[in-house]
Amino acid sequence: MTITSAGLRGAAAVVGVGTTTFGVMPGYSADDLGGWALQEALGDAGLTVKDIDGLIVNRVSGYEAFAASYGIEPRWVAELPPHGRMAGISIQMAVMAVQTGMCETVALVYGNNGKSAGATYGGGDAGDGYGSAAPALTQPYGMTSPGAFYAMMFDRYQHQFGATSNELATVPITFRRHAALNPGAVMRDPITLDDYRASRFIVEPLHVYDYCLINDGGVALIVTSTERARDLASIPVPILGFGQQGQLLASEHPPRDYWHGAIDAVGRRSYAMAGVRRDDVDGLMVYDNFSPNVLFALEGLGFSPVGEAFRWIQDGRIALGGELPVNTSGGHLSESYMQGWGLNVEAVRQLRHQCGDRQIVDASIIQYVCSAPVVTSIIYGREVR
Amino acid sequence: MKHLVEVPFPPAASQVVTYLDGLSQGRLLVQRCGACGEAQMPPRPRCAACGSEAVEWFEAAGRGRIFASGTFHKAYGPQYRNWVPYMVAIVELEEGPRLVTNIIGAAPEEIRVGLAVRAEIGVGDDGTPLVRFRPVSEDPAPSEPPFGGG
After folding, report:
1. What is the DSSP string of B67-135?
2. In chain B, which residues have their Cβ closer than 8 Å to the Cβ of A140?
3. pLDDT digits (tens, 9 = 90+) for A84-104
4. CA-nearest residue of chain B to A158?
5. Suppose A379 and one of A75, A241, B75, B83 were both cysteines; which one would form an S-S bond, judging by CB atoms 3.0 to 4.6 Å apart?
6. Cβ separation of B114 and A137 shorter than 8 Å?
7. pTM for the whole structure
8. CB pairs below 8 Å between A and B: how many?
């Protein structure tokens, strides 16, 4: 029997989420942070490590050491490279492992002590690689950071569509407002447009407020079959659908279409697997490594026409209470940069209606999207349709 | 494959070595697919468009336009500390491929997407061959050779 994509719809659910404090925590290794988050997630799910038979890890020291340290003996295990695009890929793999019967209950663990270890995501450290296959073609020119890649994309976008930083500022300003409602967020003081305009450039035209935070922290999720989820005490959040598309042949340089083609394809696949329409999405968690990526994701998915997202996001449209709340935790720009993992946890908490002051009223479908040289998206719900 | 110029990077794939050797000889070599005709950079063992191994080298004219640019206000490494602030650009050659580069001979306010530029091949501080680009007027009759001196 072939498992079709429709057969994956709602096959698995998130039954536990865990997050550490985010911030500067020099006394913790990446494994300490991953283990802390795992403990939170297990407690949330009402499970113990002995209930875990699948494991996928990211940015901890390694799957062997982590499993050995934390009492896990997996029937299925994987470790992915430390790129943010791997959060979505990991969750998709966990669903497939459960659906195929390789294992029943997967722990997904992310632990990052990069802040205390001095990572800058631009000096060749762990992080997303963009066009870095041949350093001799980039480093002699001083091209050495993903942020610069996005700065150039926004430079061209401004020229092509008439956008300015004044409109882009709505992204970090809005997410900061959301972070103020999130006790776990690192940066919670409001940003005004004047603050933004006066702030230093990192790679111009992007300001420091357009860049994700770098912090220490850990995030974990527990994924199991929807059937098993019914036996557990936590509110299960079914994973209704997902999709993935590489742009690896066209990501050495900023892509001419801002990855719209791949994002559109991934959106369609995700909605089709989930059996929902774009209009059903109550909230969007966008991988905001840099502010412009929010614009590109909104356009690629079709929430906004191409070239218009910088206008579309104005007037509170992406704020809580607006038409499409985005990154209600504050995201990577204000909560913490946990390379997509925190955004997926926020999706789950929204659907459990556990977000308190930052709750999207009656949230029933939340979409996660990451636009990168591999685009991913995941649709979460409250029930399987 | 022994190459003509030592560069301070890990061993590069052979096609990158060919490219750098070309620069060290004052030639801007780029790839074109012998099967489908698509030009591509960075150089690769196969054509990104059709997958063919029939990639060939040709010497680009050196004319292009700025595709995008960004100005670094942060040094991502001690070797860049003296550079900041500095600009990095993507130039799209008239043959199609794009390159990471720097723009020379232009004030920051002159830099814009679409600006016409011409290649100048030289050498960086560490001996790595470089291709940088200088703005040109849109006058169709150039009065200087296609490549500046090293």
Report:
1. EEEEEE-S-SSGGGTTT-SEEEEEEEETTS-EEEE-B-S--GGG--TT-EEEEEEEE-TTS-EEEEEEE
2. 124, 126, 128, 130
3. 999 999 999 999 999 999 999
4. B113
5. A241
6. no
7. 0.93
8. 98
